[in-house]
Amino acid sequence: MLSIIIITKNESGHIARCLQSVSWADEIIVLDSGSSDDTVSICRQFTPLVYETDWPGFGPQKQRALDKATGDWVLSIDADEQITKESKSEILQAIKSKTIHGYEIPRLSSYCGRQMKHGGWWPDYVSRLFQRETGYFTDDLVHERIIITGNIQKLTNPILHEAFIDPEEVLHKVNTYSSLGAKKLFAKGKSTSLSMVILKGLWTFFRTYILKASILDGAQGLMLAISNAEGTYYKYLKLLDLQNKQAQK
């Protein structure tokens, strides 16, 4: 038995395609954290297992979803991702294994209409498929990971990821993830300075555009490098702001 777990908030632009792509699974569990659009009603068209809850951060929320799963195997996907027919077949074959405990799956992401093959975005292996009793999520507020105990292998067919539909979504995610990233760094006792903030932003652009060759992905490659740099810049700028506020207390 395979359980799908998904967390959502205001994902009406993505969630129907995501749920349709996994409608073949034995169980679909959705945890929503206060959507103000019609995400919840869309989800209930695909599964009765839709729960509305608060928001403790990505890691704790995904662990909550995992705790509700009953399948022997679990596939964790995001609302902006889809499982292809080829990936479905490979997944169904993979979970027949008695000796493999988890799988990493390549993820093919799109940025403002273009599937990105450079910039560190491909093949972007992510741990998503695992035996329920052998895996758990870290409690990170952002950039959480699945920890799997046992034998792990890689699948070949990718998950499709609609990372950013348009520049407005880019700006929204840059703001959201930079805030969460800054809080994570601050909680770990990290510190920075204004000069370091600027240098980290510039380095991120150079690494993405030149070293990881997003220059080969055309206009979207340049846009990606800029937005990555902005995300890093604002994350450390917000960390600096948290430092300053703490110092003023």
Q: Helices and strands in order, then pairings?
A:
Layout: E1 2-8, H1 15-21, E2 27-32, H2 39-43, E3 50-52, H3 58-68, E4 73-76, E5 81-83, H4 85-94, E6 102-105, E7 107-111, E8 114-115, E9 126-131, E10 135-137, E11 146-148, E12 152-154, E13 159-164, H5 167-187, H6 194-211, H7 218-247
Parallel strand pairs: 1-2, 1-4, 2-3, 6-12, 7-13
Antiparallel strand pairs: 4-9, 5-13, 6-9, 7-8, 10-11
Give a verbal description of the structure:
This protein has about 250 residues and is an alpha/beta fold. It has two domains: about 1-165, Spore Coat Polysaccharide Biosynthesis Protein SpsA, Chain A (Alpha-Beta Complex), CATH 3.90.550; about 165-245, no CATH class. Helix content is about 40%, strand content about 20%. It contains seven helices and 13 strands. It has helices at about 15-20, 40-45, 60-70, 85-95, 165-185, 195-210, 220-245; strands spanning about 1-10, 25-30, 50, 75, 80-85, 100-105, 105-110, 115, 125-130, 135, 145-150, 150-155, 160-165. Strands 3-2-1-4-9-6-12 form a seven-stranded mixed β-sheet. Strands 5-13-7-8 form a four-stranded mixed β-sheet. Strands 10-11 form a two-stranded antiparallel ribbon. Strand 10 and strand 11 form a beta hairpin. The longest helix has 30 residues, at about 220-245. The chain is globular and about 55 Å long. The protein starts with a strand and ends with a helix. The mean pLDDT is about 95.
